[in-house]
Amino acid sequence: MSTVIRLRRVYEAADPQADGVRVLVDRLWPRGLSKEAAAVDDWPRALAPSTELRKWFHGGGSPEEFRRRYEAELAEPDAVAELARLRGMAAVGPVTLLTAVREPGTSHAAVLAELLGQPF
């Protein structure tokens, strides 16, 4: 079975046929969304950018520097363990990385998908 990693906004309706395991990769719960509506299976907060990094980026930080700093955060032991667990889930079936950002393809979720070695 080939590994499938998808990126989607958490606000989009779940697709039971394609989503597989739905993993929220944001540190904060999405505003205005109930747990039932989100249909999230897993929420590994260690994979989300730190609050400090998120604030720095939204304050005008460059995407290239954000990526460098985020990858450094993902090298921390808790994040490494969660990445390994996520790779294990992806080896079994589809995994959909969920985020509240407007453009998942240019977000931290895209960095995660790339690090998992998958196209998005």
Secondary-structure topology with pairs:
Layout: E1 5-9, E2 21-24, H1 35-38, H2 51-58, H3 63-73, H4 77-92, E3 95-99, H5 108-115
Summarize the structure.
With about 120 residues, this protein is of the alpha/beta class.
How is the largest sheet built, in terms of strand order? 1-3-2
Total count of helical runs of at least 4 residues: 5
Helix content: 25-40%
Beta-sheet strand percentage?
A: 5-15%
**Count of DSSP E strands?**
3
Helix and strand composition category: alpha/beta
Overall form: globular
Overall pLDDT, averaged?
92
SSE string, helices as H and strands as E: EEHHHHEH
Write up what this structure looks like.
The chain is an alpha/beta fold. 39% of the residues lie in helices and 12% in strands. The protein has five helices and three strands. The protein has a three-stranded parallel sheet with strand order 1-3-2. The relative contact order is 0.28.
What key phrases describe this protein's structure?
alpha/beta, 3 strands, 12% strand, three-stranded parallel beta sheet, 120 residues, globular
